[in-house]
Structure to design on (352 residues):
């Protein structure tokens, strides 16, 4: 039995993705689901698990129709979905009465339920959020009966979002536990329990790779692995600036690094290192590919203490440096020297 486990599709979300991509991003979330469906067909997947937060908000009826249409392209794959905290089954939720195609199974129940898929001899256990939060651990931790493959589908696992005892969970005799809610993909128990992570990163904090979990249960043994699949990633990029760099040089260095990392990705840039004390960067101009969502300048002005001391023999700056210049680089005294000179030089620059 081959399965693909995805989670946190957040359809309907509008992730910030830089000037270049923000507009297309909502549609890309849908395209990714479409690509997963093609993948299911190519790899002859038996079961597609969707571990909650299918939609970013209460789904509209037309959105459910769109999704059901995409699922109609599946050739042999069953789909099992649950609602998470974002798309919980509100009183008037369209989820309640929606008629999915026969191979699409939405577990609407707020209590743990069992869905039997006879033709692939697999049971999927799960529940859907009926409210924005689930404060209590709702799991009974009873072992499923061994009448086929048993899979547990859950959304949450942290305070206010279905807190569960993960160790206890992993010790139960499920063949696989498919988790959603945490956007970072994480295998919590080898070949047993995993967060698929958001299929596509949804905001700038969803850094790193995103995709799905592929799994296979064969002779009562489960094997899983994470597969990278997202169209774009949020990439943290630390750029070391050299004291001899001009602003244009820094800009070129940054462009090079972004091209290496792929211009399709979205960047969170931090400039570090030392710059000339009177160097000025027009940070906005550094966003050449319009794919930077954050740029932080943590560079520090460089001071040649000896030179400054000699030029300031007769004033407080010179005297201050003289006091501390023999200290070891990296020591507390050195830090005091740097901070002191920086404060004095900044004051002087501002007065000039
Ligand atoms: Mn969630």
């Amino acid at each position: 039995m081959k399965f693909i486990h995805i989670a946190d599709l957040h359809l309907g979300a509008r992730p910030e993705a830089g000037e270049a991509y923000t507009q297309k991003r909502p549609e890309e979330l849908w395209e990714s689901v479409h690509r997963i469906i093609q993948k299911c067909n190519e790899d002859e997947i038996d079961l597609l698990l969707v571990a909650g937060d299918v939609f970013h908000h209460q789904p509209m009826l037309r959105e459910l129709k769109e999704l059901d249409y995409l699922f109609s392209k599946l050739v042999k794959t069953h789909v099992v979905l649950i609602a998470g905290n974002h798309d919980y089954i509100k009183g008037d939720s369209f989820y309640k009465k929606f008629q999915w195609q026969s191979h699409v199974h939405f577990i609407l129940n707020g209590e743990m339920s069992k869905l039997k898929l006879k033709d692939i001899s697999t049971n999927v256990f799960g529940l859907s959020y009926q409210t924005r939060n689930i404060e209590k651990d709702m799991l009974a931790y009873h072992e499923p009966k061994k009448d086929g493959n048993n899979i547990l589908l859950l959304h949450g696992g942290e305070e206010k979002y279905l807190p569960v005892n993960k160790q206890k969970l992993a010790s139960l005799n499920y063949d696989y536990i498919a988790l959603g809610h945490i956007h970072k993909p994480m295998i919590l128990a080898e070949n047993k329990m995993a967060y698929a992570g958001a299929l596509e990163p949804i905001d700038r904090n969803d850094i790193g790779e995103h995709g799905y979990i592929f799994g296979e249960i064969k002779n009562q043994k489960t094997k899983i692995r994470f597969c990278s699949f997202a169209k774009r990633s949020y990439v943290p990029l630390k750029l070391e600036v050299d004291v001899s760099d001009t602003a244009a040089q820094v800009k070129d260095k940054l462009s090079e690094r972004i091209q290496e990392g792929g211009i399709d990705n979205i960047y969170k840039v931090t400039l570090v290192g030392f710059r000339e004390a009177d160097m000025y960067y027009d940070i906005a101009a550094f966003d050449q590919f319009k794919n930077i969502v954050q740029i932080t300048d943590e560079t520090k002005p460089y001071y040649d203490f000896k030179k400054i001391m000699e030029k300031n023999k007769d004033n407080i700056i010179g005297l201050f440096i003289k006091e501390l210049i023999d200290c070891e680089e990296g020591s507390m005294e050195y830090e005091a020297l740097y901070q002191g000179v920086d404060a004095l030089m900044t004051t002087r620059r501002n007065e000039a």
About this structure: The chain has three domains: 2-228, 233-301, 303-352. Residues 303-352 form one domain. Residues 332-351 form the longest helix (20 residues).
